[in-house]
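User: Some background: our group keeps a shared notebook of sequences we're curious about, and every so often someone picks one and asks for a predicted structure to add to the entry. Today it's my turn. The entry only has the sequence so far, pasted here. Could you supply the structure so I can complete it?
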Amino acid sequence: MELPTSGLRIERTGTRQYVARNDRGGEVAIGPREIDGVFNPGELMALALAACTMMSADLPIGRRLGEDFTGGAVVRTEKDEQQNRYTSAEVDVLLDTDSLTEKETEALVRVISRAAEQACTVGRTLHAGLPHEVRLAPPGKD
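Assistant: Of course. Here's the predicted structure to add to the notebook entry:
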C-alpha cells in the first residue's frame, strides 16, 4: 500500500506504534505509555496546548524579560478513566521573574493569559470543542 508523502501523516511501525511526519521533516514517535521513547496521543495533545500557550506569549514575555529569556512550561491533565477522556488540563508557565516587582509579575501573568486566550489556536479549539470524523480513504488518495 502506498502511503501519502505530503501533509500531516502517521505511518504504522509496529503494534500500536506509529511515526508522525510533516512536510518540513519533523518526526515524532507515537505509541502506548508502556513503550519507552514514544509519546502517547494524550501527551501530544497536552504538549500541543503547552507549546501553543508558550508560543502565543513568547513575544510579550520577551518584551518584559528580554528576548533571550529562559522559560518553559509543565502541563498536567486529569483523565476520567471510565469515560476515556480528559476532563481538564493545566499549563504552568515556568519563568525566572526574580528581576520583576510584584506588580510587574502580576502584569506578566495577565499578559500571558491574554496572549494564550487570543492567539493559542490549540487552547481556543479545545475550549470550543472540535467536531471531527473518521473516514476510510482509498489507498493512494492524498
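Suggested note for the entry: The beta strands are 9-14, 17-21, 27-30, 71-80, 85-95. The longest strand covers residues 85-95.
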